[in-house]
Amino acid sequence: MTRADRDLVTALRAELAAIDPSRPCDRVAEAAGLGHDPVQRESAVARLALRLGRRPGGEATTGAVEGGPAFDWVGSAEHCRMAYLRGRFLARGSLSLAGARTHLEFVVPADEAPLLAGWLADAELLASWRVRRGRGVVTWKSSETVGTFLRRIGAGAALLELEARQVSRALRGELNRVLNAESANLQRVVAAAGRQLEAIDRLEADGRLAEQPYLIRLVADARRETPEATLAEIADRLSLHRSAVQRALERLERLALHDDEGVGRRGSRRDGRRRGERTAPVRGAAAPLA
């Protein structure tokens, strides 16, 4: 990730850690998500753990931080579930924005991975899971799913910035794709025009261009006058179909490649002896003198 991306992820996590649940049940759920020993050591997460370990009046919350990751998912309300997932993300989650890809994963005990993946699926946040080096890894690689998850657990301004960057990257990628395609098309047009102009010059030099049908000569003149024009532009200029222009230019190139065989001459035929034909004697022809 770039430094800007890392700063954005840090800001997003700090924003989530700054959320102060108003419902006691949400505080208990988020504390359960944090567990005993969060992997992440950010100061914002540490302060959150301290806040959740006390009730507003200063009394210790029974079964919060001490309760670890144990959580009654089935019997909990939606807001409690999201509070739990927020705590689990802050404790065991990581977000990567490398390149144009978004990757979020939870690194949890191996036996928790399928359970957490099942809970996420129940919340319509389908995730894959696997065991890696003895640890369970629950993963999302879809930027849309990651954005939905972060929004549901309370991300706000930082998520908007993240989505704006993703849109900007997508637009830059699409623009680059279009520019590359246009550049490739332009190179093909230039190369084709070069071949066609060379063919026209060769046919004019040996006199065959003047022997071609009017349409062929018309297209040849248009190509000479506008070397940079596309087939569609030439067709529009001459009020012809694009396919007619393409066929005419292909014929010119083909004729230029066969300049030693008389291809394209009106009424021309190859010498009969080249075809393997036998020339019949002309009746009444005088016998050769001795």
Task: Tag the structure with descriptive keywords.
single chain, 290 residues, alpha+beta, Endonuclease I-creI, four-stranded antiparallel beta sheet, disordered C terminus
Describe this protein's structure.
This protein is α+β, with helices and mostly antiparallel strands and 290 residues long. It folds into two domains: 3-155, Endonuclease I-creI (Roll), CATH 3.10.28.10; 175-256, no CATH class. It is built from ten helices and four strands. The N and C termini lie far apart (99 Å). The relative contact order is 0.08.
Outline the fold blueprint:
Blueprint: H1 3-17, H2 24-34, H3 43-52, H4 78-92, E1 93-96, E2 103-109, H5 113-122, E3 128-132, E4 135-140, H6 143-152, H7 157-205, H8 214-225, H9 231-238, H10 242-256
Helix pairs in contact: 1-7, 2-4, 7-10, 8-10, 9-10
Oligomer: single chain
- Number of extended strands: 4
Distance between the first and last residues' Cα: 99 Å
Q: Which second-level CATH architecture of the largest domain applies? A: Roll
Mind summarizing the main beta sheet? 4 strands, antiparallel
Task: Supply the helix-strand structural class.
Answer: alpha+beta
Describe what is shown at a glance.
The protein has 290 residues and is α+β, with helices and mostly antiparallel strands.
